[in-house]
Amino acid sequence: MNMKKQTITRVSEQIAAPLTAIASPQRIAILLAIGQGEACVCHLEAALGWRQAYISQHLMSLRKADVLEDRREGRYVYYRLKNQSYLDLLSTSAEICGLSSDSVVALTHSKTYPSCECPHCSPAVIPVGDVRIKTSA
Ligand SMILES: [Zn+2]
Prior knowledge:
- The chain has helices spanning 2-22, 25-34, 41-48, 52-64, 85-96, 101-107; strands spanning 38-39, 68-73, 76-81, 125-128, 131-134.
- It is an alpha+beta fold.
- The strands form two sheets. Strands 1-3-2 form a three-stranded antiparallel sheet. Strands 4-5 form a two-stranded antiparallel sheet.
- It is built from six helices and five strands.
- The longest helix has 21 residues, at 2-22.
- A hairpin with a 2-residue loop joins strand 4 (125-128) and strand 5 (131-134).
- The chain is globular, with a radius of gyration of 18 Å.
- Helix 5 (85-96) crosses helix 6.
- Helix content is 52%, strand content 16%.
- Zinc ion is lined by residues 43, 46, 113, 116, 118, 120-121.
- Residues 43, 46, 113, 116, 118, 120-121 line the site of zinc ion.
């Protein structure tokens, strides 16, 4: 009996870890904005309208908590979900609070922002060696 209780306690602690790591509206927004793809800080800045330093702070915590992983490419650092199941977790939570999971999934589809200069949003910016030149102004 005591053994079983210990196991439940230990399992509960493990289950709580990812939930605790993402349990704030800001972090959930970041996960939704990254969605199934990957995003750099400037892209999240355009998507969410928050200060870059503020977003970086959350990205750092999410990476520390093993929720996100990052990848450097040139002068950009891209963040992506380490486990896509976080998106399932978010749509399930959305259903629990009465939102349609479809509307949540729609938010995770990668968008482009005119104010963002990342390669995903500005494909007109092509790398020429280390220098990036806009092909159309
Ligand atoms: Zn972008």
